[in-house]
Amino acid sequence: MGGSANPAMVGVIRERVAAGAVPAGRDPGEVGVVLGAVTVVDADGAAARARARTEVAMYLAVVADLDPTAGVPADLLGRVKELVDAGRDEDAGRLIPDDVLDLFAFSGTPEQVAAQAQALIDAGAHRVEFGTPHGLTDDGGVELLGGAVLPLLDRTRGRR
């Protein structure tokens, strides 16, 4: 599932997979759940989160409605969409509070991003995909993901 860093969505996706797999004679447990989202990791966590807010603003109005657990206020979605439509992506991003940002992006320091990814693993995700732009620079983000984020993950936990 793209556009989500929300651990609660792992259970939702499992239910939806089971609804189709069982009638088809397939074991739902054989279908892995993968979640991925915009990722911005940097030693400067505040700058990474500010960039992630701008990136998320561009698609929040679409993906928020697809997440029945998010509960993003309609007035917030409306205002974000209005600003994005006016080409004011950074202004739209500034409206996104931390709790909402964390549902739709991996962002912050390597430790913050690792904690978000670990929450998905603990919820039973089989894989986590870190989407672009990766960092404040693509090369820097990829380097931090491979060198600082991945070593912090315990991928043996949470598998169901």
Automatic annotation (TrEMBL):
Keywords: Oxidoreductase. Residues 5-126 form the Luciferase-like domain. Pfam families: Bac_luciferase. InterPro entries: F420-G6PD/mer (IPR050564), Luciferase-like_dom (IPR011251), Luciferase-like_sf (IPR036661). Gene3D superfamilies: Luciferase-like domain (3.20.20.30). SUPFAM superfamilies: Bacterial luciferase-like (SSF51679). It comes from the Bacteria. PANTHER family: 5,10-METHYLENETETRAHYDROMETHANOPTERIN REDUCTASE, PTHR43244. This is Luciferase-like domain-containing protein. It comes from Streptosporangium longisporum.
